[in-house]
Amino acid sequence: MITHSFTPEKYFNVFGTIKPALRISPGDRVITTTLDAHGYDQDMKKPGASGNPLTGPFFVEGSGPGDTLIVHIETASPNRDTGWTSSVIADHLVDHSFVRELPQKDYLDWKIDRKKSQASYVDPETGKTVITLPLSPMLGCIGVAPSEGQMISSRYSGEHGGNMDYRGFREGTTAFFPVFQEGALLYVGDGHAAQGDGEPVGTGIETSFDVQFSVDLVKGKRIQWPRGEDSEHIFTAGNAAPLEQAARFALTEMIRWLGTDYNMTIELASIILGQATEFDLANLFNPLFTAVCRLKKSVITNRGNPRE
Amino acid sequence: MITHSFTPEKYFNVFGTIKPALRISPGDRVITTTLDAHGYDQDMKKPGASGNPLTGPFFVEGSGPGDTLIVHIETASPNRDTGWTSSVIADHLVDHSFVRELPQKDYLDWKIDRKKSQASYVDPETGKTVITLPLSPMLGCIGVAPSEGQMISSRYSGEHGGNMDYRGFREGTTAFFPVFQEGALLYVGDGHAAQGDGEPVGTGIETSFDVQFSVDLVKGKRIQWPRGEDSEHIFTAGNAAPLEQAARFALTEMIRWLGTDYNMTIELASIILGQATEFDLANLFNPLFTAVCRLKKSVITNRGNPRE
Question: Which top CATH class is B3-78+139-222?
């Protein structure tokens, strides 16, 4: 296994087919950093443009359309002691009749205590700590170059992944992406120290991250939507609007996954998913919404197999 | 406290302004039973019509429009050893391109082991246990008579509650409903021994239930959507289509709740909800979808209060 220490020189605000920043091989590890969503790094310098600047793209040797890229997220955590959020629930996330009640939007600074693994909002006028939350770091953006030479904004999501703002793309998770372009072209960015389900204020606690990952490849295996696996769950992420279409995509991808990798008929997958599906709402803020279908691995393993 | 042992004689497939089955007072307790969604009781007799027949309505003395009804769900659990489910993911819960792949829908019987607190599906051809899941009993239907003399099917949901199919309406939860009619007219039914998020096959493990609850009243307190509280969370349920509108209703109701009962400005509620909201997808199957906004009570109590 080769470990690449990669210091980004340029950042991109799209997922697309761009000249690779680094070429790596299946099995390789990358140690790198990401900027916050406004383009600031750990020293509060601003080498990237606002709007989810991305680190990458990483060209994975030997990968091409129709393959599946595997990304083991080994580290994804804040590398500085500050983050920021929007201050007010987004207009389009409350009922229309309530929008007039909302105050003006502002940006607020949070303190990040990496040792204690918590984030605090301190009222700048009173100096009082208003709220302290446990850190729950995640990569808001992760994905590959999309199909057909598309260049898709890092505000959006799609079959390629993108700005999914899902808390499951975190340290310890293995992520899977469909490969659409030669080299896959992996991008990461938009670290959140914490984030509410649905991303109600339109941001997490936005900050710069240290990221370490390794990659693998499944040649000739075609998946349709991003997938993930952690110690307890497997999950599938659908990105679409309306939100129920995102949920449909995620649930359909899960049925496919249970068929190909766990040898389940659609009947058996239905019996299990019908009563054991867990759904996460990742974001309702972005132009396309993200719904995630999860299934406990214990449910899959503790079963008989009618195909046998 | 008066305890009423109530044996239903008739069942209704609507939430509406119907002659009360029983008159109770705030503080009273009711011990009763509910039928399964096809109308069968614990002895597999069928005294109710298919399609979520409801037990009630219970007239709560002293309640009227503009009040809030409080329902402490003390018991909600299967009272027989069998349940049934649909066998196949619903057509409208998979991507359109996948509908043709789905097999014909059937009904399947599950065994319910109340002692071990688990449910099993046994393949009727092989006699083998296909899957065993922990029981997670919930009331698919709970709510009051809706506004303006509406009679709303127990397949639907709304501001009155109804067929929300949310796993949070369970033993140990305190539920809150807006009162629209004199006496509130509370209904319960549609017990599920377990159910996946989103109700992907269109049913839980449907069975008859023993239910025990007590009621209270807050005079002159108007809420807009069903709410709930358990040992760890408070939650609000929005019922609408598209699903993002259900989520908007739930989030807006949570902001209102934090304002009136927890003395939070919209700014403070935003700061907390932005990073700590949890969202549950209750059902995507019913004509109106249910999204639930939750907040850990520990997040609310572990904070400073800028209003002080």
Answer: mainly beta
In chain A, the N- to C-terminal Cα span, in Å, equals 38
Answer whether residue B226 shows pLDDT above 80: yes
CA distance A140 to chain B (A): 13
DSSP A18-65: ---SEEE-TT-EEEEEE--TTS--TTS---S-SS--EEEEEEETT--T
Domain residue spans of chain B: 3-78+139-222, 82-134, 228-301
**Pairing, β B3-5 against β B29-34:** parallel
Tokens of B134: 């922990």
Neighbours of A23 (CB within 10 A): 12
CATH domain B228-301 topology: Endonuclease I-creI (3.10.28)
Q: What is the pLDDT of residue A1?
A: 83
CB–CB contact B133 A276 (8 Å): yes
Q: Using CA atoms, how far apart are residues A295 and B104, in angstroms rounded to an integer?
A: 24
What is d(CA B212, CA B189) in angstroms, rounded to the nearest whole number? 12
Per-residue pLDDT, averaged over A62-67, amounts to: 98
Please determine, looking at this structure, whether the domain spanning A3-81+135-222 carries the CATH number 2.60.120.580: yes
ipTM of the modeled complex: 0.96
Nearest CB among A121, A126, A272 relative to B131 is that of A272
- pLDDT the model gives residue A239: 98
Tell which of B85, B87, B89, B199 to mutate to test the A interface (max A CBs under 10 Å). B89
Q: Are A89 and B271 inside 8 Å of each other by CB?
A: no
Residues 6+ apart with CB under 8 A from B281: A247, A279, A281, A291, B197, B198, B243, B289, B290, B291, B292
Mean of pLDDT values over B211-226: 98
pLDDT of residue B305: 47
Query: Which one-letter DSSP state was computed for residue A94?
Result: S
> Do A100 and A91 contact (CB within 8 A), yes or no?
no
3-state SS class at A116? coil
Burial letters B46-76, b for 16+ CB under 10 A, else e = eebeeebbbbbbbbbeebeeebbbbbebbeb
Q: How far is A51 from chain B (nearest CA, A)?
A: 19
Burial of B112 (0-12, 13-18, 19+ CB in 10 A): buried
Pairing outcome for strands B161-163 and B138-144: antiparallel
Binned at pLDDT 50, 70 and 90, residue B307 comes out as very low
In this predicted model, what pLDDT tens digit does every residue of A159-217 receive, in sequence order? Answer: 999 999 999 999 999 999 999 999 999 999 999 999 999 999 999 999 999 999 999 99
Chain B residue nearest residue A281, CA to CA: B279
